[in-house]
Write a structure and sequence with these properties.
CATH class of the largest domain: Alpha Beta
Largest sheet: 7 strands, parallel
CATH topology of the largest domain: Rossmann fold
Distance between the termini: 39 Å
Number of helices: 23
Radius of gyration: 27 Å
Strand order of the largest sheet: 6-5-3-9-10-12-11
CATH superfamily of the largest domain: HAD superfamily/HAD-like
Low-confidence stretches: 1-57, 345-350
Strand content: 5-15%
Shape: globular
CATH architecture of the largest domain: 3-Layer(aba) Sandwich
Mean pLDDT: 85
Number of domains: 2
């Protein structure tokens, strides 16, 4: 049964309107009440931060486009075998040479596009800014020639453009020529405004490349501090420099200025150009054929040596809102519907308002006792290394508490009277975390090819809600769901639950059981994705434990028992450095290290790679 670890605040306003279910979105379900619990949960950090939101509120089109594109595409670029190997410093020299050879084609295309944008701009200041940016590109081309010589490449030699390079440069130059959604070419523009619009489109197609490289430069700078003799230090320093950041800011400011006079439809076109440019950059990095051992994508690392077992929690790991709040709301509003229709349906309860008060009382009691329980299970001193046995013992206290709390809910009768069809409709409208849906859809399409199994381990009271959520997203096929089940009589819940997983101990024992039942003829590698303290044992038992969200209690409990939390990208670069022997796994269970991510796109990029991998 679902652990009531999130029942902390009064029940949100009704999710049902009359007799039909309203869409379950963050705005209609008051999700902030239910996700900001003792677990310290929030929507994933990939959501725009308050600082980013402030920037967007100020009207920066460039920042808005970056926020929309970066969550997915920036992760897909960073997690490519090429960039992970480069960051680790063990990218083969011939592969880096090929990269910088192709980079020259980009510089030439940028210089030409800037020239065409300057011709289209009708403002002297804008033209001056574009001219300065073009000058910087030309200077970089000269520097690039010297870099090519350093790496043993003749800059005067004609180097064929690769398919991915050509795809990007053709897109950029077509945009510069005004070939955008049927727009007339720039040479056929008759008014200054039309030409200015093309200038905005050109800048919109260049800006994401500048911002992406500035972002990657900063991400990779951390590895120079670890290795002063990093072989690609000069390349990283170039894109992490304040000069390059200033150039990125300059073109973003220009894009904002050029966008001011555009219509909503024209801004939408720039947004599409921005997104397309980001995707082509990802394709460019993904097209680098890194024929050496790599840790990502994990599907490539495993093939054909390992079978991949993927496990995930559900509530607030996959979802934006917690299912317990949704199910309780359905129960209360089901009573309202039954009362309005004059049908009792064996609902031996008081008015719905009293039922709501009962739920709030259960929430309040749980909140108070949960905090006391968490204090009791923590050791007085922080362990210097993972003490798994002590953690398991501590979570036994939490398990007993959770079982007692769940029994109170069942005994109270608040879960009686729900119609199965209402539960299914609620599941269909359940909002999944950004990137989660895409991940599971890709899993379903490729699981047989990639030789992997996928399991959901959840405290959710009603597995049918989970099945409905994934079915509506088109990713139920092949998904193994392990959760509790409501008991029904004629499609109406009795209030009883078939309790299968209601504590951290139940969850980890199920995890071990599935793992032990896996095909023993093939070695396997396990990944567990979770977001709460109740997931800690599974996260540690897996070869790779990935933490989503920002739960403070998970981190507090984990650190007290010797668990370390490392950003996934940093951890993978370290693993890439260790990857010397193709036959030896660099991932081990109970290592004491858990990896943190800011979005499901990072998980997707790590496990499956981009669509171009």
């Amino acid at each position: 049964m679902l652990v009531l670890r999130r029942l902390r605040f009064p029940l949100p306003r009704p999710l049902l309107v009359s007799s039909s279910l309203a869409p379950l979105s963050p705005s209609t379900s008051s999700s902030s009440c239910w996700s900001s619990t003792g677990e310290g949960r929030r929507a994933m950090a990939s959501s725009p931060s308050s600082a980013s939101a402030a920037v967007v509120a100020e009207g920066s089109a460039a920042r808005r486009f970056w926020i929309a594109a970066s969550t997915r595409e920036a992760a897909f670029a960073a997690y490519t075998p090429f960039l992970l190997s480069l960051a680790a410093g063990n990218l083969r020299l011939d592969l880096f040479r090929h990269y910088i050879e192709q980079d020259a084609h980009f510089f030439h295309a940028f210089a030409r596009a800037y020239e065409m944008a300057e011709d289209c701009a009708d403002d002297d200041d804008d033209r001056a800014t574009i001219a300065a940016l073009r000058k910087a590109i030309l200077q970089e081309l000269n520097l690039h020639a010297s870099v090519l010589k350093e790496w043993g490449v003749d800059p005067t030699k004609e180097i064929p453009s690769s398919a991915a390079t050509t795809k990007y440069t053709d897109f950029l130059l077509a945009t510069a020529a005004g070939k955008v959604d049927g727009t007339k070419g720039s040479d056929k523009m008759v008014t200054p405004f039309e030409k200015t619009k093309i200038a905005a489109y050109i800048v919109g197609a260049i800006t994401p490349c500048m911002r992406l490289y500035a972002y990657l430069g900063k991400e990779l700078m951390a590895f120079l501090k670890q290795d002063e003799n990093h072989p690609y230090k000069k390349w990283i320093n170039t894109y992490a420099s304040s000069d390059f950041e200033n150039n990125a800011l300059q073109i973003e400011e220009l894009l904002d200025k050029l966008s001011v006079s555009l219509t909503g439809e024209e801004l939408e076109i720039i947004g599409k150009l921005y997104q397309q440019a980001m995707k082509l950059e990802v394709e460019f990095f993904s097209a680098k054929l890194v024929d050496q051992p790599v840790v990502a994508p994990l599907s490539r690392y495993c093939d054909p040596k390992y079978k991949l077992l993927i496990f995930s929690d559900f509530d607030l790991t996959c979802t934006v809102v917690d299912s317990s709040a949704i199910l309780a709301e359905i129960a209360i509003l089901s009573f309202q519907k039954a009362s309005q229709s004059g049908i009792d349906n064996n609902l031996d309860r008081a008015k719905s308002g009293e039922l709501r008060n009962l739920w709030n009382m259960l929430s309040k009691q749980y909140m108070e006792e949960y905090e006391e329980c968490m204090e009791r299970l923590l050791p007085p001193e922080e362990s210097k290394s993972l003490d798994y046995d002590k953690l398991y013992k501590g979570l036994e206290v939490l398990a007993e508490f959770e079982k007692a709390a769940n029994s109170r809910v069942v005994d109270s009768g608040v879960l009686r009277g729900m119609n199965l069809e209402d539960i299914r409709k609620a599941g269909e409208r359940l909002i999944l975390q950004g990137g989660c849906k895409n991940f599971f859809q890709k899993i379903v399409k490729t699981r047989e090819i990639l030789n992997l199994d996928i399991h959901i381990l959840s405290y959710c009271w009603c597995a049918e809600l989970i099945r409905s959520a994934f079915s509506s997203a088109g990713c139920l096929d092949g998904l193994n769901i392990h959760a509790n089940e409501f008991a029904f009589e004629e499609s109406v819940s009795t209030g009883e639950i078939d309790r299968k997983i209601q504590s951290p101990l139940d969850k980890v024992e199920k995890f071990k059981s599935i793992r032990s039942d896996a095909d023993s003829t093939v070695p396997f590698l396990s990944v567990y994705i979770g977001d709460s303290a109740g997931d800690l044992l599974c996260l540690l038992e897996a070869d790779i434990g990935i933490v989503v969200g920002s739960s403070t209690s998970l981190r507090r409990v984990g650190r007290q028992f010797g668990v370390s939390f490392v950003p996934l990208f940093l951890g993978l670069v370290e693993k890439q450095r260790q990857l010397m022997d193709e036959d030896a796994s660099v991932f081990k269970p109970r290592s004491g290290v858990l990896y943190t991510v800011s979005s499901w796109s990072e998980i997707h990029a790590f496990v499956l790679g981009s669509d171009f991998s």
